Amino acid sequence: LNQLRHQLESAYSTSSSYHHNMAEKSKAKKFPEVQGGGSLILAWRIKDKKVLVVGGGEVAAGRILNCLDADAKVTVVCPASGLNPEVAHRVERAQVTHVDRLFEPSDLDGADMVLVAIDDPAASTTIWKLCKERRIPANIADVPPECDFYFGSVHRDGPLQIMVSTNGKGPRLAAIIRRQIAKSLPKNAGNAIEAIGTLRAKLRKIAPNPEESPKRMGWMIKVSNKYDWNEFCDLTDEDMENLLKFYAGNQVPTIDDLLAMRETPGFNVKDVFDGSFGFCVGV
């Protein structure tokens, strides 16, 4: 306990000195103005979390798909007669657990999130109040004051997810903006990001220590700035292994050098940067 206290005191002292120096340097610096009224945009990880969906119509279908895409365990409470074709499909495929009746308070037991999409304002408000009592985050469709969070318009391409939110003010406008953003993206953006993720995972294996985090981050920034989308998509496992050999020296080869290494077993990293490898390049 004494050792922990000493470590915390030392960290606090270092942090205080750091923040004092930063404060002195930033006196003349302008900072972003606070814009109230927004939402905190997060990538909420709900894998294996229990999500309760009350309702089985079109809105519920969209909510269900979003949650299944995030690997949540979804339970749908709705009479079978109220299920639309898509929700019925999810039930038939056992992608969700279906409770064939109207909502009951006991349905909230164990729920991590509640999504309500029914055409009954009074019942929706009752469920909202029950969720507040139990401190369960909830979203009541089309009733912004009764939402702990909003659903935005989402563009998905593999690991890439982009959400546009109007904070409940204009969902249709959010969809229009999202489509415009999607059109501006490279068609292979998702594949490129997947490749970067694979490279990062490999890097963590050869440099696992937390102390190396700044260096890892800095090197990955260099790599991300060095190659374009198509070049990332074309990287093979061999290319990534060769690329990682440059991490120790905090260097990044050109794509031409990296591809040439496929045919040059036993290459020396130093040769790439002094011109001996056949190219004369810089970092």
Can you describe this structure?
The structure is a single chain. This protein is an alpha/beta fold and 283 residues long. The chain has three domains: 102 residues, Rossmann fold (3-Layer(aba) Sandwich); 34 residues; 74 residues, Siro heme synthase C-terminal domain-like. The protein has eleven helices and seven strands. It has a five-stranded parallel β-sheet with strand order 3-2-1-4-5, with helices on both faces. Helix 4 links the parallel strand 4 and strand 5. The longest helix is centred in the first third of the chain and has 24 residues. The protein is extended. It starts with a helix and ends in a 9-residue tail after the last helix. The relative contact order is 0.07. The C terminus is likely disordered.
List keywords for this structure.
283 residues; alpha/beta; Rossmann fold; Siro heme synthase C-terminal domain-like; 3 domains; two-stranded antiparallel ribbon; 11 helices; 11% strand
